[in-house]
Design brief:
The structure holds 2 protein chains of 2 kinds. By secondary structure, chain A is mostly helical. Chain A contains 13 helices and no strands. Chain B is globular. In chain B, α1 packs across α12, α4 packs parallel to α7 and α4 packs antiparallel against α11. The chains are: A mainly alpha, B mainly alpha.
Protein backbone atom coordinates (compact mmCIF):
# COMPACT_ATOMS: atom_id res chain seq x y z
CA UNK A 1 0.00 0.00 0.00
CA UNK A 2 2.75 2.43 0.88
CA UNK A 3 4.18 1.90 -2.59
CA UNK A 4 1.68 4.43 -3.89
CA UNK A 5 3.45 7.25 -2.09
CA UNK A 6 6.87 5.98 -3.11
CA UNK A 7 6.47 6.57 -6.83
CA UNK A 8 9.68 8.40 -7.80
CA UNK A 9 8.28 9.54 -11.13
CA UNK A 10 5.40 11.39 -9.49
CA UNK A 11 7.74 12.81 -6.84
CA UNK A 12 10.03 14.16 -9.55
CA UNK A 13 7.12 15.50 -11.55
CA UNK A 14 5.83 17.40 -8.51
CA UNK A 15 9.18 18.75 -7.39
CA UNK A 16 11.23 19.51 -10.47
CA UNK A 17 9.24 22.38 -12.05
CA UNK A 18 9.22 24.27 -8.75
CA UNK A 19 12.88 23.64 -8.09
CA UNK A 20 13.87 24.60 -11.62
CA UNK A 21 12.03 27.90 -11.48
CA UNK A 22 13.32 28.59 -7.98
CA UNK A 23 16.93 27.86 -8.89
CA UNK A 24 16.72 29.90 -12.07
CA UNK A 25 15.24 33.02 -10.45
CA UNK A 26 16.64 32.84 -6.90
CA UNK A 27 19.77 30.76 -6.59
CA UNK A 28 21.32 31.55 -9.96
CA UNK A 29 20.87 35.36 -9.66
CA UNK A 30 22.26 35.22 -6.11
CA UNK A 31 25.35 33.41 -7.38
CA UNK A 32 25.84 35.69 -10.39
CA UNK A 33 25.31 38.76 -8.17
CA UNK A 34 28.11 37.66 -5.89
CA UNK A 35 30.30 37.26 -8.96
CA UNK A 36 29.44 40.34 -11.04
CA UNK A 37 29.87 42.57 -7.98
CA UNK A 38 33.63 42.19 -8.46
CA UNK A 39 33.63 43.05 -12.16
CA UNK A 40 33.15 46.21 -14.21
CA UNK A 41 30.38 44.68 -16.31
CA UNK A 42 28.03 47.08 -18.08
CA UNK A 43 25.96 44.45 -19.83
CA UNK A 44 27.33 44.97 -23.31
CA UNK A 45 31.07 44.66 -23.69
CA UNK A 46 33.51 42.22 -22.18
CA UNK A 47 34.10 42.67 -18.52
CA UNK A 48 37.08 42.19 -16.30
CA UNK A 49 37.60 41.32 -12.69
CA UNK A 50 38.34 44.45 -10.69
CA UNK A 51 38.43 43.16 -7.12
CA UNK A 52 36.89 45.42 -4.50
CA UNK A 53 36.89 48.54 -6.67
CA UNK A 54 33.07 48.71 -6.89
CA UNK A 55 32.76 48.61 -3.12
CA UNK A 56 35.48 51.23 -2.63
CA UNK A 57 33.84 53.47 -5.26
CA UNK A 58 30.45 53.23 -3.66
CA UNK A 59 31.61 53.95 -0.14
CA UNK A 60 33.77 56.88 -1.22
CA UNK A 61 30.79 58.47 -2.99
CA UNK A 62 29.29 61.13 -0.68
CA UNK A 63 25.90 60.60 -2.38
CA UNK A 64 25.85 56.98 -1.26
CA UNK A 65 26.87 57.94 2.26
CA UNK A 66 23.99 60.40 2.42
CA UNK A 67 21.72 57.66 1.07
CA UNK A 68 22.76 55.48 4.02
CA UNK A 69 21.90 58.35 6.38
CA UNK A 70 18.48 58.61 4.73
CA UNK A 71 17.86 54.89 5.26
CA UNK A 72 18.80 55.56 8.87
CA UNK A 73 16.09 58.24 8.99
CA UNK A 74 13.58 55.67 7.79
CA UNK A 75 14.71 53.29 10.53
CA UNK A 76 14.69 55.92 13.30
CA UNK A 77 11.29 57.19 12.20
CA UNK A 78 9.94 53.64 12.23
CA UNK A 79 11.41 52.73 15.62
CA UNK A 80 10.72 55.92 17.57
CA UNK A 81 7.54 57.24 15.97
CA UNK A 82 5.73 54.51 14.05
CA UNK A 83 6.15 51.63 16.50
CA UNK A 84 4.94 53.56 19.59
CA UNK A 85 1.94 54.84 17.60
CA UNK A 86 1.25 51.33 16.31
CA UNK A 87 1.17 50.01 19.88
CA UNK A 88 -1.07 52.83 21.09
CA UNK A 89 -3.54 52.40 18.22
CA UNK A 90 -3.62 48.62 18.63
CA UNK A 91 -4.30 48.92 22.37
CA UNK A 92 -7.05 51.45 21.70
CA UNK A 93 -8.70 49.24 19.07
CA UNK A 94 -8.31 46.22 21.37
CA UNK A 95 -10.04 48.16 24.16
CA UNK A 96 -13.17 49.29 22.35
CA UNK A 97 -16.21 47.10 21.81
CA UNK A 98 -18.09 49.13 19.24
CA UNK A 99 -16.65 49.54 15.76
CA UNK A 100 -13.68 47.28 16.50
CA UNK A 101 -14.09 45.38 13.23
CA UNK A 102 -14.54 48.61 11.30
CA UNK A 103 -11.31 50.10 12.68
CA UNK A 104 -9.36 46.94 11.98
CA UNK A 105 -10.64 46.62 8.39
CA UNK A 106 -10.10 50.28 7.58
CA UNK A 107 -6.60 50.78 8.92
CA UNK A 108 -5.41 47.72 6.99
CA UNK A 109 -6.54 49.00 3.59
CA UNK A 110 -3.44 51.01 2.52
CA UNK A 111 -1.13 48.03 2.98
CA UNK A 112 -2.81 46.01 0.23
CA UNK A 113 -2.52 48.77 -2.38
CA UNK A 114 0.27 49.40 -4.85
CA UNK A 115 3.01 51.63 -3.47
CA UNK A 116 3.34 53.22 -6.91
CA UNK A 117 -0.32 54.24 -6.97
CA UNK A 118 -0.11 55.50 -3.38
CA UNK A 119 2.89 57.60 -4.40
CA UNK A 120 0.89 59.17 -7.22
CA UNK A 121 -2.09 59.75 -4.94
CA UNK A 122 -0.04 61.51 -2.27
CA UNK A 123 1.95 63.43 -4.85
CA UNK A 124 -1.38 64.98 -5.74
CA UNK A 125 -2.29 65.73 -2.14
CA UNK A 126 1.10 67.40 -1.63
CA UNK A 127 0.75 69.38 -4.86
CA UNK A 128 1.71 73.00 -4.06
CA UNK A 129 -0.99 74.71 -6.18
CA UNK A 130 -3.88 72.33 -6.44
CA UNK A 131 -3.31 69.90 -3.56
CA UNK A 132 -5.74 69.83 -0.64
CA UNK A 133 -2.99 69.89 2.00
CA UNK A 134 -1.86 73.40 1.14
CA UNK A 135 -5.50 74.32 0.65
CA UNK A 136 -6.18 73.20 4.21
CA UNK A 137 -3.14 74.98 5.65
CA UNK A 138 -4.13 78.17 3.84
CA UNK A 139 -7.21 78.31 6.07
CA UNK A 140 -4.78 78.99 8.93
CA UNK A 141 -2.87 81.55 6.90
CA UNK A 142 0.09 79.25 6.27
CA UNK A 143 1.98 80.00 3.08
CA UNK A 144 2.32 77.60 0.19
CA UNK A 145 4.79 74.79 0.95
CA UNK A 146 6.53 72.93 -1.88
CA UNK A 147 6.34 69.61 -0.08
CA UNK A 148 8.20 67.41 -2.54
CA UNK A 149 10.38 70.06 -4.16
CA UNK A 150 11.78 71.61 -0.99
CA UNK A 151 14.86 69.88 0.45
CA UNK A 152 13.65 70.59 3.96
CA UNK A 153 10.19 69.05 3.49
CA UNK A 154 10.65 66.22 0.97
CA UNK A 155 11.97 63.66 3.44
CA UNK A 156 9.31 64.20 6.13
CA UNK A 157 6.65 64.13 3.40
CA UNK A 158 7.85 60.77 2.08
CA UNK A 159 8.28 59.36 5.59
CA UNK A 160 4.71 60.29 6.37
CA UNK A 161 3.33 58.52 3.30
CA UNK A 162 5.40 55.44 4.04
CA UNK A 163 4.00 55.38 7.57
CA UNK A 164 0.49 56.01 6.25
CA UNK A 165 0.80 52.96 4.03
CA UNK A 166 2.30 50.47 6.48
CA UNK A 167 1.16 51.36 10.00
CA UNK A 168 -2.23 49.71 9.66
CA UNK A 169 -0.64 46.44 8.66
CA UNK A 170 1.43 46.36 11.86
CA UNK A 171 -1.50 47.58 13.96
CA UNK A 172 -3.45 44.52 12.82
CA UNK A 173 -0.51 42.26 13.71
CA UNK A 174 -0.25 43.71 17.23
CA UNK A 175 -4.03 43.75 17.62
CA UNK A 176 -4.18 40.01 16.91
CA UNK A 177 -1.71 39.44 19.75
CA UNK A 178 -3.69 41.69 22.11
CA UNK A 179 -7.00 39.98 21.36
CA UNK A 180 -5.38 36.59 22.03
CA UNK A 181 -4.40 37.61 25.58
CA UNK A 182 -6.39 36.11 28.47
CA UNK A 183 -8.93 38.61 29.74
CA UNK A 184 -8.67 37.74 33.45
CA UNK A 185 -5.56 39.72 34.27
CA UNK A 186 -6.89 42.93 32.80
CA UNK A 187 -10.22 42.47 34.55
CA UNK A 188 -8.54 41.81 37.91
CA UNK A 189 -6.42 44.93 37.51
CA UNK A 190 -9.49 46.95 36.63
CA UNK A 191 -11.25 45.79 39.80
CA UNK A 192 -8.15 46.77 41.77
CA UNK A 193 -8.61 50.26 40.38
CA UNK A 194 -5.86 50.41 37.74
CA UNK A 195 -6.56 53.00 35.05
CA UNK A 196 -6.65 52.11 31.38
CA UNK A 197 -3.25 53.72 30.93
CA UNK A 198 -1.72 51.77 33.83
CA UNK A 199 -3.15 48.52 32.53
CA UNK A 200 -1.73 49.19 29.09
CA UNK A 201 1.77 49.93 30.41
CA UNK A 202 2.00 47.29 33.12
CA UNK A 203 -0.03 44.42 31.72
CA UNK A 204 -0.64 44.58 27.97
CA UNK A 205 2.70 45.89 26.72
CA UNK A 206 4.86 43.40 28.68
CA UNK A 207 2.66 40.54 27.46
CA UNK A 208 2.90 41.50 23.79
CA UNK A 209 6.66 42.11 23.79
CA UNK A 210 7.35 39.20 21.41
CA UNK A 211 5.11 40.65 18.70
CA UNK A 212 6.53 44.15 19.29
CA UNK A 213 9.92 42.64 18.69
CA UNK A 214 8.69 41.13 15.41
CA UNK A 215 7.21 44.48 14.36
CA UNK A 216 10.51 46.22 15.14
CA UNK A 217 12.45 43.76 13.02
CA UNK A 218 10.03 43.92 10.12
CA UNK A 219 10.08 47.73 10.22
CA UNK A 220 13.87 47.82 10.20
CA UNK A 221 14.04 45.33 7.33
CA UNK A 222 11.38 47.34 5.46
CA UNK A 223 13.26 50.59 6.04
CA UNK A 224 16.44 49.05 4.62
CA UNK A 225 14.90 48.17 1.30
CA UNK A 226 12.42 50.99 0.85
CA UNK A 227 12.51 52.11 -2.78
CA UNK A 228 9.20 52.22 -4.69
CA UNK A 229 7.76 55.14 -2.77
CA UNK A 230 10.94 57.18 -3.26
CA UNK A 231 11.19 56.43 -6.99
CA UNK A 232 7.58 57.34 -7.62
CA UNK A 233 7.34 60.45 -5.43
CA UNK A 234 10.72 62.16 -5.73
CA UNK A 235 13.15 59.92 -7.69
CA UNK A 236 15.55 60.56 -4.81
CA UNK A 237 15.49 64.34 -5.17
CA UNK A 238 15.42 67.21 -4.63
CA UNK A 239 19.24 67.25 -4.71
CA UNK A 240 19.46 63.76 -3.24
CA UNK A 241 17.56 64.72 -0.10
CA UNK A 242 15.35 61.60 -0.25
CA UNK A 243 17.84 59.25 -1.93
CA UNK A 244 18.01 55.88 -0.18
CA UNK A 245 20.41 53.02 -0.90
CA UNK A 246 18.03 51.12 -3.16
CA UNK A 247 17.05 54.21 -5.18
CA UNK A 248 20.75 55.08 -5.50
CA UNK A 249 21.23 51.57 -6.84
CA UNK A 250 18.48 52.03 -9.42
CA UNK A 251 19.63 55.50 -10.45
CA UNK A 252 23.29 54.49 -10.79
CA UNK A 253 22.97 51.02 -12.26
CA UNK A 254 19.99 51.44 -14.56
CA UNK A 255 20.66 55.00 -15.72
CA UNK A 256 21.91 56.19 -19.09
CA UNK A 257 25.27 54.47 -18.62
CA UNK A 258 24.32 51.18 -17.02
CA UNK A 259 26.87 49.69 -14.64
CA UNK A 260 25.57 46.32 -13.58
CA UNK A 261 28.78 45.33 -11.80
CA UNK A 262 28.46 48.34 -9.54
CA UNK A 263 24.72 47.73 -9.15
CA UNK A 264 25.15 44.16 -7.95
CA UNK A 265 27.83 45.36 -5.52
CA UNK A 266 25.30 47.82 -4.06
CA UNK A 267 22.65 45.11 -3.77
CA UNK A 268 25.09 42.96 -1.82
CA UNK A 269 25.81 45.91 0.47
CA UNK A 270 22.08 46.41 1.14
CA UNK A 271 21.70 42.69 1.79
CA UNK A 272 24.67 42.71 4.20
CA UNK A 273 23.35 45.78 6.06
CA UNK A 274 19.96 44.15 6.47
CA UNK A 275 21.51 40.94 7.81
CA UNK A 276 23.79 42.81 10.23
CA UNK A 277 20.97 45.00 11.58
CA UNK A 278 18.64 42.06 12.16
CA UNK A 279 21.44 40.07 13.79
CA UNK A 280 22.34 43.02 16.04
CA UNK A 281 18.72 43.47 16.98
CA UNK A 282 18.32 39.77 17.74
CA UNK A 283 21.42 39.79 19.96
CA UNK A 284 20.42 42.86 21.96
CA UNK A 285 16.73 43.69 22.28
CA UNK A 286 15.34 40.56 20.71
CA UNK A 287 17.14 38.40 23.23
CA UNK A 288 16.22 40.33 26.38
CA UNK A 289 12.59 40.47 25.34
CA UNK A 290 12.39 36.75 24.77
CA UNK A 291 13.96 36.31 28.20
CA UNK A 292 11.23 38.39 29.83
CA UNK A 293 8.47 36.33 28.41
CA UNK A 294 9.76 32.90 29.34
CA UNK B 1 -15.52 61.46 33.40
CA UNK B 2 -16.76 57.98 32.53
CA UNK B 3 -18.27 59.06 29.25
CA UNK B 4 -15.12 60.98 28.42
CA UNK B 5 -13.13 57.80 28.99
CA UNK B 6 -15.42 55.93 26.69
CA UNK B 7 -15.37 58.56 23.95
CA UNK B 8 -11.68 59.42 23.97
CA UNK B 9 -10.43 56.19 22.30
CA UNK B 10 -13.06 56.55 19.59
CA UNK B 11 -12.08 60.17 19.02
CA UNK B 12 -8.43 59.18 18.50
CA UNK B 13 -9.29 56.20 16.32
CA UNK B 14 -11.80 58.07 14.18
CA UNK B 15 -9.20 60.77 13.56
CA UNK B 16 -6.78 58.10 12.41
CA UNK B 17 -9.42 56.46 10.21
CA UNK B 18 -10.21 59.88 8.72
CA UNK B 19 -6.53 60.35 7.79
CA UNK B 20 -6.55 56.91 6.17
CA UNK B 21 -9.77 57.46 4.26
CA UNK B 22 -9.42 61.12 3.30
CA UNK B 23 -7.12 60.53 0.28
CA UNK B 24 -9.56 57.99 -1.18
CA UNK B 25 -12.55 60.27 -0.79
CA UNK B 26 -10.59 63.17 -2.22
CA UNK B 27 -9.53 61.15 -5.25
CA UNK B 28 -13.03 59.83 -5.82
CA UNK B 29 -14.49 63.36 -5.69
CA UNK B 30 -11.76 64.79 -7.90
CA UNK B 31 -12.18 62.05 -10.48
CA UNK B 32 -15.73 63.23 -11.09
CA UNK B 33 -15.05 66.95 -11.19
CA UNK B 34 -15.19 69.16 -14.21
CA UNK B 35 -11.68 70.64 -14.26
CA UNK B 36 -8.54 71.44 -12.31
CA UNK B 37 -10.15 74.72 -11.37
CA UNK B 38 -13.00 72.99 -9.58
CA UNK B 39 -10.51 70.69 -7.77
CA UNK B 40 -8.36 73.62 -6.70
CA UNK B 41 -11.16 75.94 -5.58
CA UNK B 42 -13.35 73.34 -3.85
CA UNK B 43 -10.92 70.60 -2.79
CA UNK B 44 -13.10 69.23 0.00
CA UNK B 45 -16.57 69.35 -1.43
CA UNK B 46 -18.23 66.75 -3.66
CA UNK B 47 -18.39 67.52 -7.39
CA UNK B 48 -21.15 69.92 -8.43
CA UNK B 49 -22.01 67.83 -11.46
CA UNK B 50 -20.90 64.22 -11.76
CA UNK B 51 -18.61 64.02 -14.78
CA UNK B 52 -18.68 60.31 -15.53
CA UNK B 53 -17.21 60.97 -18.96
CA UNK B 54 -13.82 61.33 -17.20
CA UNK B 55 -13.93 57.57 -16.68
CA UNK B 56 -14.65 56.84 -20.31
CA UNK B 57 -11.89 59.23 -21.33
CA UNK B 58 -9.27 57.68 -19.02
CA UNK B 59 -10.28 54.12 -19.87
CA UNK B 60 -9.76 54.59 -23.61
CA UNK B 61 -7.60 57.67 -24.14
CA UNK B 62 -5.12 56.92 -21.38
CA UNK B 63 -5.07 53.21 -22.17
CA UNK B 64 -6.03 52.31 -18.61
CA UNK B 65 -7.94 49.42 -20.19
CA UNK B 66 -4.67 48.02 -21.62
CA UNK B 67 -2.77 48.34 -18.33
CA UNK B 68 -5.74 46.95 -16.43
CA UNK B 69 -6.01 43.76 -18.48
CA UNK B 70 -2.24 43.28 -18.53
CA UNK B 71 -2.19 43.44 -14.74
CA UNK B 72 -5.25 41.28 -14.43
CA UNK B 73 -4.05 38.41 -16.54
CA UNK B 74 -0.43 38.55 -15.34
CA UNK B 75 -1.44 38.60 -11.67
CA UNK B 76 -4.07 35.89 -12.16
CA UNK B 77 -1.97 33.53 -14.25
CA UNK B 78 1.16 33.81 -12.13
CA UNK B 79 -0.86 33.36 -8.93
CA UNK B 80 -2.61 30.26 -10.31
CA UNK B 81 0.58 28.69 -11.64
CA UNK B 82 2.37 29.56 -8.39
CA UNK B 83 -0.38 27.94 -6.31
CA UNK B 84 -0.43 24.76 -8.42
CA UNK B 85 3.34 24.37 -8.46
CA UNK B 86 3.62 24.99 -4.72
CA UNK B 87 0.73 22.67 -3.93
CA UNK B 88 2.29 19.84 -5.94
CA UNK B 89 5.65 20.44 -4.30
CA UNK B 90 4.17 20.73 -0.83
CA UNK B 91 2.30 17.45 -1.43
CA UNK B 92 5.45 15.66 -2.51
CA UNK B 93 7.43 17.08 0.41
CA UNK B 94 4.91 16.43 3.17
CA UNK B 95 2.93 13.36 2.09
CA UNK B 96 5.20 11.23 -0.08
CA UNK B 97 7.66 8.82 1.47
CA UNK B 98 11.00 10.31 0.47
CA UNK B 99 11.49 11.80 3.89
CA UNK B 100 15.22 12.54 3.97
CA UNK B 101 15.26 14.02 0.51
CA UNK B 102 12.18 16.10 1.31
CA UNK B 103 13.73 17.60 4.44
CA UNK B 104 16.74 18.81 2.50
CA UNK B 105 14.67 20.20 -0.36
CA UNK B 106 12.29 21.98 2.02
CA UNK B 107 15.15 23.80 3.77
CA UNK B 108 16.66 24.64 0.39
CA UNK B 109 13.45 26.28 -0.82
CA UNK B 110 13.07 28.24 2.42
CA UNK B 111 16.47 29.89 1.91
CA UNK B 112 14.64 31.97 -0.69
CA UNK B 113 12.70 33.72 2.07
CA UNK B 114 15.89 35.21 3.49
CA UNK B 115 16.73 36.98 0.24
CA UNK B 116 14.90 40.30 -0.12
CA UNK B 117 13.49 40.82 -3.60
CA UNK B 118 15.42 43.85 -4.77
CA UNK B 119 18.80 42.28 -4.00
CA UNK B 120 18.27 40.04 -7.01
CA UNK B 121 16.80 42.73 -9.20
CA UNK B 122 19.85 43.46 -11.40
CA UNK B 123 20.92 39.84 -11.72
CA UNK B 124 17.35 38.96 -12.72
CA UNK B 125 17.42 41.75 -15.25
CA UNK B 126 20.55 40.27 -16.83
CA UNK B 127 18.95 36.84 -16.71
CA UNK B 128 15.78 37.80 -18.58
CA UNK B 129 17.89 39.77 -21.04
CA UNK B 130 20.04 36.70 -21.76
CA UNK B 131 16.95 34.55 -22.05
CA UNK B 132 15.74 36.94 -24.72
CA UNK B 133 12.45 37.65 -22.95
CA UNK B 134 13.12 41.23 -21.89
CA UNK B 135 10.14 43.37 -22.93
CA UNK B 136 7.74 40.45 -23.01
CA UNK B 137 5.29 39.43 -20.30
CA UNK B 138 7.40 36.34 -19.64
CA UNK B 139 9.97 38.68 -18.07
CA UNK B 140 7.42 39.45 -15.34
CA UNK B 141 5.44 36.20 -15.25
CA UNK B 142 8.48 34.04 -14.46
CA UNK B 143 10.03 36.17 -11.67
CA UNK B 144 6.59 36.82 -10.12
CA UNK B 145 5.77 33.12 -10.09
CA UNK B 146 9.23 32.14 -8.84
CA UNK B 147 9.30 34.89 -6.24
CA UNK B 148 6.13 33.61 -4.63
CA UNK B 149 7.25 29.98 -4.40
CA UNK B 150 9.13 29.86 -1.06
CA UNK B 151 6.33 31.40 1.00
CA UNK B 152 3.63 29.48 -0.90
CA UNK B 153 5.36 26.15 -0.33
CA UNK B 154 5.79 27.00 3.35
CA UNK B 155 2.14 27.93 3.90
CA UNK B 156 0.67 25.05 1.91
CA UNK B 157 3.07 22.49 3.41
CA UNK B 158 2.09 23.62 6.92
CA UNK B 159 -1.54 23.01 6.03
CA UNK B 160 -0.98 19.63 4.34
CA UNK B 161 1.00 18.32 7.30
CA UNK B 162 -2.15 18.56 9.37
CA UNK B 163 -4.23 16.28 7.12
CA UNK B 164 -4.82 13.00 9.00
CA UNK B 165 -3.09 9.90 7.66
CA UNK B 166 -6.23 7.79 7.86
CA UNK B 167 -7.80 9.76 5.06
CA UNK B 168 -5.05 9.05 2.60
CA UNK B 169 -4.76 5.42 3.68
CA UNK B 170 -8.45 4.94 2.97
CA UNK B 171 -8.06 6.58 -0.43
CA UNK B 172 -5.13 4.36 -1.31
CA UNK B 173 -7.13 1.29 -0.21
CA UNK B 174 -9.77 2.39 -2.68
CA UNK B 175 -7.11 2.13 -5.36
CA UNK B 176 -6.20 5.76 -5.96
CA UNK B 177 -2.75 6.44 -7.38
CA UNK B 178 -0.61 9.15 -5.79
CA UNK B 179 -1.66 11.49 -8.58
CA UNK B 180 -5.32 10.69 -7.94
CA UNK B 181 -4.82 11.12 -4.22
CA UNK B 182 -3.37 14.58 -4.81
CA UNK B 183 -6.04 15.75 -7.23
CA UNK B 184 -9.14 14.14 -5.73
CA UNK B 185 -8.44 14.14 -2.00
CA UNK B 186 -5.64 16.44 -0.89
CA UNK B 187 -6.23 19.45 -3.16
CA UNK B 188 -9.92 19.84 -2.25
CA UNK B 189 -9.11 19.68 1.47
CA UNK B 190 -6.33 22.24 1.07
CA UNK B 191 -8.54 24.84 -0.63
CA UNK B 192 -8.55 27.30 2.31
CA UNK B 193 -4.75 27.47 2.24
CA UNK B 194 -4.73 27.66 -1.56
CA UNK B 195 -7.10 30.62 -1.50
CA UNK B 196 -4.92 32.45 1.02
CA UNK B 197 -1.80 31.83 -1.03
CA UNK B 198 -3.55 32.81 -4.24
CA UNK B 199 -4.59 36.15 -2.74
CA UNK B 200 -1.15 36.97 -1.39
CA UNK B 201 0.47 36.16 -4.73
CA UNK B 202 -2.17 37.99 -6.72
CA UNK B 203 -1.77 41.18 -4.65
CA UNK B 204 2.01 40.94 -4.86
CA UNK B 205 2.00 40.83 -8.66
CA UNK B 206 -0.84 43.31 -9.06
CA UNK B 207 1.09 45.90 -7.03
CA UNK B 208 4.65 45.17 -8.14
CA UNK B 209 6.50 48.19 -9.49
CA UNK B 210 10.29 47.82 -9.68
CA UNK B 211 10.59 44.84 -12.07
CA UNK B 212 7.61 46.00 -14.11
CA UNK B 213 9.26 49.37 -14.56
CA UNK B 214 12.60 48.07 -15.84
CA UNK B 215 11.74 44.78 -17.54
CA UNK B 216 8.98 46.24 -19.72
CA UNK B 217 9.38 49.38 -21.78
CA UNK B 218 6.70 48.85 -24.44
CA UNK B 219 3.69 50.91 -23.47
CA UNK B 220 1.20 48.28 -24.64
CA UNK B 221 2.71 45.72 -22.26
CA UNK B 222 2.78 47.88 -19.13
CA UNK B 223 0.95 46.91 -15.96
CA UNK B 224 -1.17 49.28 -13.86
CA UNK B 225 1.49 50.55 -11.41
CA UNK B 226 4.02 51.47 -14.11
CA UNK B 227 1.32 52.49 -16.58
CA UNK B 228 -0.10 54.84 -13.96
CA UNK B 229 3.29 56.42 -13.27
CA UNK B 230 3.83 56.93 -17.01
CA UNK B 231 0.32 58.29 -17.27
CA UNK B 232 0.99 60.77 -14.48
CA UNK B 233 4.20 61.91 -16.16
CA UNK B 234 2.39 62.47 -19.49
CA UNK B 235 -0.81 64.07 -18.22
CA UNK B 236 1.06 66.09 -15.59
CA UNK B 237 -1.65 68.70 -15.33
CA UNK B 238 -4.85 66.78 -16.01
CA UNK B 239 -5.66 65.87 -12.42
CA UNK B 240 -9.15 64.56 -12.92
CA UNK B 241 -7.83 61.95 -15.36
CA UNK B 242 -5.02 60.95 -12.99
CA UNK B 243 -7.61 60.53 -10.24
CA UNK B 244 -9.81 58.38 -12.49
CA UNK B 245 -6.77 56.24 -13.17
CA UNK B 246 -6.15 55.82 -9.45
CA UNK B 247 -9.79 54.83 -8.93
CA UNK B 248 -9.50 52.21 -11.69
CA UNK B 249 -6.39 50.71 -10.17
CA UNK B 250 -7.49 50.52 -6.53
CA UNK B 251 -11.12 49.47 -7.04
CA UNK B 252 -10.49 45.79 -7.94
CA UNK B 253 -8.28 45.35 -4.88
CA UNK B 254 -10.80 47.08 -2.64
CA UNK B 255 -13.61 44.89 -4.02
CA UNK B 256 -11.57 41.78 -3.41
CA UNK B 257 -10.88 43.07 0.10
CA UNK B 258 -14.57 43.78 0.75
CA UNK B 259 -15.46 40.14 0.13
CA UNK B 260 -12.39 38.41 1.49
CA UNK B 261 -10.99 40.70 4.18
CA UNK B 262 -10.43 38.01 6.79
CA UNK B 263 -8.63 35.79 4.27
CA UNK B 264 -6.55 38.69 3.00
CA UNK B 265 -5.54 39.90 6.45
CA UNK B 266 -4.69 36.34 7.46
CA UNK B 267 -2.64 35.69 4.34
CA UNK B 268 -0.76 38.97 4.20
CA UNK B 269 0.15 38.91 7.88
CA UNK B 270 1.09 35.21 7.89
CA UNK B 271 3.43 35.93 5.01
CA UNK B 272 5.34 38.60 6.87
CA UNK B 273 5.60 36.99 10.27
CA UNK B 274 6.99 33.74 9.00
CA UNK B 275 9.26 35.53 6.56
Amino acid sequence: MKQTLRNPAVYALFIIPTLALYCLFFIYPMVTSSYYAFTDWNGLEDYKFIGLKNFVDVFSDPDFRSAIINNLFFILFAVFIQVPMIIIMAILIGGVKRLQGFYKTTVFVPSILSTAVIGILWGFIYHPEIGPLNGFLALFGIDKIYWLADEKWAMPAVLFVNAWQWMGFYIVLVLAAILALPKEMNEAAEIDGASGFQRAIHITVPLIKPIISVVMMLSIAGAMRVVDIVLVMTKGGPVGSTEVMASYLVNRAMGVNPSYGLGTAISLIIFAFALILTALYQMTFGKSEKGDVS
Amino acid sequence: MRTLKRILPHAVLLTYVAIILFPFVFVLFSSLKESNLEIATHPFSPPKVLHFQNYVEAWVKAKINVYFFNSLYLATSSAIVGVLLSAATAFALTRMKFIKMSKVLYQFVLIGMLIPGNVLFIAQYMLVMNMGILNTHWALFLPYTAGALPLSVLLIAAFMKSIPNELEEAAIMDGLSSMGLFVKIVLPITIPALVTVFIVNFLGSWNEYLLANFFISKDALRTLPTGMVGFRDTFRTNYKLICTGIVFSVTPVLLLYAFLQEKIIEGVTAGSVKG
